Amino acid sequence: MAHGTTINPAATANCTTVFDLERSVVTHRRWLTVMACLLCASAAVVIGSLRFGAESISYTDTVNIFLLWLRNGSAKLESTEPNFMILMYVRLPRIVLAFMVGGCLATVGVGLQALLRNPLADPYVLGISSGAALGAALAMLLGVGVTAMAVSSLPLFAFIGGLLSIGIVYRIAVSYGHLPVHTLLLAGVVLNAVFSALIMFITSIMDPNRSFGMMSWLMGTLLAPDYPALGALAVYVGVGTAVLASQSTALNILTLGEESARSLGVEVERLKKTIFVTAALLTGAVVSVSGLIGFVGMVIPHAVRLFVGPDHRLLLPASALVGGMFLVIADALARTLLAPSEIPVGVVTALAGGPIFLYLLTRRKGGLAS
Amino acid sequence: MTPKPPAYCIKELGYRYGTRRHETGRPGAWSLRNMSFEVRDGEILGLLGPNGSGKTSLLKLLGKIMRPETGSIELFGSDVTGMVQDVVARLVAFVPQEQQQIFPFSIMETVLMGRFPHRARGRFGTFGWEGETDLRMAQDAMKDMDVLHLADRSIHDVSSGERQRAIIARALAQQPRVLLLDEPTAFLDLNHQVEICRILRKLNDERGLAVVLVSHDLNMASQYCDRIMLMENGRLFRIGTPDDVITPDALHAVYRCDVLVDRHPGSGLPRVTLPGRQMTRHS
User: Fold this and answer.
1) Which residues 197-226 of B have a C-beta within 8 angstroms of A?
2) Which residues numbered 284-313 in A keep a CB inside 8 Å of some CB on B?
3) Residue B86 · residue B117 · CB < 8 Å
């Protein structure tokens, strides 16, 4: 047998096989099918959730407004149609924001789960979100959270805070060699406690007017952003997700453990650094706009894995879309359940995700990475 | 026949745990000291020795999974330390003693992971799909290891023997020139132990695959290995043919245990029998 002379056609596999290829691996066709379905579902969820909110706007009105907008532009509508303002400057940006935040959190969850080889890893549970929140809170306190040309420096501080906490969690992980699930969660609890205390401290010494705003931000709130801010977030999200997705196959192999990954030709140290930085970047970007929204990063990848399998080439983008949909729906609930007042969306996700997390923890007891 | 250049040429190799940055505390004792030997191309070399004698460490150094502290490892003439990880992975495949897998990949997906070092790194990093060659190689490897019928089963839903065979199939899908195995038969029943040894011997005969395997099974090593290296406390005790190495005095020196060595009735190779109740009186 010839060695080292293999050609690697990038073409999709369509060779005749004695076994069922579709059932054994994620093929190009299955990838396209699943992603197309999810994209349609995402569009449906985004459009469907447009009507929910303090002001009920029927779909007929929505369609009419959009048709008018397409025909006449926005200038005239802004003065004549109040619903246009609500839809275009309040509801739509908020829904898009929710979609990006949810997608981001799910993506980070997938990355962390591969890195720590643990299906319960989540940026919120592990204290990475609170690390990022601490960074952002510190920036707010010191007044360095300046916004220049729509690019806020808050994500940068949140990024540093997130990076710090991922570093600490990972450090704990390696000093135990292979990380048992309970140690990991314990590390998260301690980190969360310490960071929360520091955030409380910062809140307590702040001007009361500002500290109220910060408290509601910490509970996880999606406030309608302006479009430039949304664009800046989209850049963070796009870059981070693309970087992680480009490492999909290597992530698959990393779940075998570092030694096996190395023996299969993965540059493990470089890959780990990539995941660290990307996860911290995405968490920082998300936390700085929406505060602490928990459990999306754990529940969504877990659920998606049950349906599409563990291959990261499909798991990553599918989780991003499902996470986006999940948060859009959670936010629609948060807007409408007690309308006209709102529930922080973090409360909704925690109430939905917490029980699922506990269920998984008890069901998998002993059998999970321990 | 002209002698082939060696697969591995190891000079004054030394290793100790605890010197890497993230490992806390002071460096531990040397787990490998001053090892110099060669692995010939196309041979089956068995690494034997008591627990903690450094067999697994040595195997991981050969696979560039760990870095040596002192000395050098040459793989087909070039220094392993300077080689990129996927270049090593195209030449050497490693089968760990126990493969833990948290996520439910199918057997086919598991075996296809062995194609990773051969995959083209395109515009999309490692995102791309397996090509026809990858699928063919994976299928061939799965046929060799008799796991093709399990292709769509989750790695969690097969027996430990089947899982081990799938992991070896993954290593074969790497198309390596050297195969490193850490106690490949440790969790297998008698039937599968013999089967795996036969397959290794067959691959060795047909493709000239060099095999380095760690084992605790002296008899299996004696029957299936071309040469055997006996290790003691991080040092090379003796290396040579089974006839040279599997002797009562060598085994006593290394394992501190009296054994009976006679000839295998079928192959004529050394056969080791554990001390029986009467043995001390007889010998």
Assistant:
1) 207
2) 305, 309-311, 313
3) yes
Contact A281, A108 (CB under 8 A): no
- Is residue A331 a contact partner of residue A344, using CB atoms and an 8 Å limit? no
Contact between A10 and A292 (Cβ < 8 Å): no
Q: Are A300 and A329 in contact (CB under 8 A)?
A: no
Are the C-beta atoms of residues A288 and A119 closer than 8 Å to each other?
no
CA–CA gap between residue A133 and residue B232 (Å, rounded): 54
Nearest C-alpha in B relative to A259: B65
Residue in chain A closest to B151 (alpha carbons) equals: A24
Reduce the secondary structure of chain A to three states and give it as a string.
CCCCCCCCCCCCCCCCCCCCHHHHCCCHHHHHHHHHHHHHHHHHHHHHHHHCCCCCCCHHHHHHHHHHHHHHCHHHHHHHCHHHHHHHHHHHHHHHHHHHHHHHHHHHHHHHHHHHCCCCCCCCCCCHHHHHHHHHHHHHHHCCCCEECCEECHHHHHHHHHHHHHHHHHHHHHHCCCCCHHHHHHHHHHHHHHHHHHHHHHHHCCCHHHHHHHHHHHCCCCCCCCHHHHHHHHHHHHHHHHHHHHCHHHHHHHCCCHHHHHHCCCCHHHHHHHHHHHHHHHHHHHHHHHCCCCCHHHHHHHHHHHHHCCCHHHHHHHHHHHHHHHHHHHHHHHHHCCCCCCCCHHHHHHHHHHHHHHHHHHHCCCCCCC
**Pair of tokens at residue B96:** 């760990």
> For every one of its 283 residues, what pLDDT tens digit does chain B have, with 9 covering 90 and above?
556 788 899 888 888 876 554 455 556 778 888 889 999 988 999 999 988 888 988 999 999 988 888 889 999 888 988 888 889 999 999 999 877 788 889 999 999 999 988 876 655 556 677 888 888 889 999 988 888 888 888 888 888 888 888 999 999 999 999 999 998 888 788 888 888 888 899 989 998 899 999 998 898 899 999 999 999 888 899 999 999 999 989 998 898 888 888 888 888 888 988 877 765 555 4
The alpha-carbon gap from A274 to the nearest alpha carbon of chain B, in Å, equals 13
**Structure ipTM:** 0.87
Q: Which two tokens stand for residue A128?
A: 């990475």
Angstrom CA distances, A147 to A143, A150, A215, A229, B152, stand at 11, 6, 21, 10, 53
In angstroms, the separation between the Cα of residue A348 and the nearest Cα of chain B is 28
Phi-psi region of B39 (alpha: psi -120 to 50; beta: other; left: phi over 0): beta
Flag if A252 and B128 touch (Cβ within 8 Å).
no
- Interchain contact A370–B (C-beta under 8 A): no
Please tell me whether residue B241 adopts helix, strand or coil conformation: coil
Distance from CA of B117 to the nearest CA of A (A): 5
Distance from CA of B101 to the nearest CA of A (A): 6
Please tell me if residue B182 touches chain A, with a CB cutoff of 8 Å.
Answer: no
What separation in angstroms does the CA of A181 have from each of A37, A299, A300, B102?
Answer: 34, 16, 18, 11
CATH, domain range A94-363: 1.10.3470.10
